[in-house]
Amino acid sequence: MRFLAAAACAAVAAAGPMMPAAAQVGNPATPRVGSPSAQPAGPPAPVVAPRPEPRAGPLPGSLSLPQALDEAAARSPAIVAAEAEVAAAEARIRQAGYRSNPELSVEVENFAGTGELRGLRSTETTVALNQRLDLGGRRSARVNAAQAALEVQKLKLAMAKADLLQSVREQFARAIAAREKLAQATENEGRARELARVAGILVEAGRDPPLRALRARSALAQAQAAREAAAADELAARSSLAALFGVSEPVWAVSGTALDVTPRQVNPDQSLDVRLADAERVAAQAGVREQLAERRLDPAVGVGVRHIRETGDVGLVAGLSMPLRLFDRNQGNIEAARQAATAADARRASTLATTTAKARNAIANVEAAQRRVEALERAAVPEATEALRLAELSYREGRASLIELIDIQNAYTAARTSLTEARLELALATADLGRILAQ
Questions:
Q1: Coiled-coil stretches, from where to where (predicted)?
Q2: Other C-beta atoms within 10 Å of 292: how many?
Q3: How far is CA 351 from CA 398, 413, 422, in A?
Q4: Domains present along the chain, CATH in parentheses
Q5: Which residue in 114, 180, 325, 368 has the fewest CB atoms around it within 10 Å?
Q6: What single DSSP character describes residue 124?
Q7: pLDDT for 42-60, tens place per residue?
């Protein structure tokens, strides 16, 4: 046993200078060639800076849009998942850069046989170290492919953030619109209650028939039902906004405006979608080079020490082997990688065309929504407000009927609702444009 240990040490020392690449174990005369079961045997993995933990704790009492965007970026499980994918891609780069381990083999021959080979007298023991030489550039091809995959994951992380911010902008706008509709419904309920009170007084005074009071009470019931529905919608909007943060409790309140993106021209080539398509094309091309490297011939060398027990003699053994690419030349994987690269080129062209159309449509939608909001704010709502004021005065003075007043109230409510919906459409169009502008 002492001899085996010494022979192993001698084999390792003798083979050490000959090991420039990856490791392979086999008989020293005919070392195995292939892909050994490798364990990391390279330089220590670089230390990756720890990512901050997702933010926890309650949300602020009232959220503005900038606060909502910040909370979403710090809390969202979708961002945590995308960051983990980036970390995994970084780990794959480190793994791709490791050299394969050398293998130490011990072989005992000619023992426990018959005749001259009976017992251990004729035993021959060989201790060898074997190494596969990476002459075909497999390791560098693996590293390049892993680096290209990392760029893809980084862009997917940026897209996840951009998608999240778009979702937050859209849901925040819906929460603002729901808040305004609830305020309008509450105002309408108060106005309907006052109208029912006045109608009751006029009926008691004999100025209106009892049917008018019944009609006013019916309008009040409808206004109350509308307010209850608006309150439910407002709560649902705040809950949906909180879900984007990974929080189960609804946001307490939203404040401020839902607009934070300035419309401007878009360069589709710089959009995240096109850049991701470019990165995927580069990764596909790196995959082709990796598969081409896999078919190259990497020799395997081995060196060892053999001890013949019967004579006590010791000698060195060495070997070299090369694979014969008669059948498997990695043709299928190479063709698959080339087809994947062709598909990536086609997807890039399609993505560019789609993004260009989306950018043009987004700018047009924002401009149209702005014009609609301006028209409603400048004329429709002020005129409906003034008409309602005059109708209420006329009704109290007996110069307008209850039906006329209710019709004007409905027109005022419709104008206010149209303005709220127009502002929501503007905010949604702006959020869509912001997603396209994200770089």
A1: 352-379
A2: 18
A3: 66, 43, 30
A4: 2-29+61-321+328-437 (1.20.1600.10)
A5: 114
A6: E
A7: 333 333 345 667 777 667 7
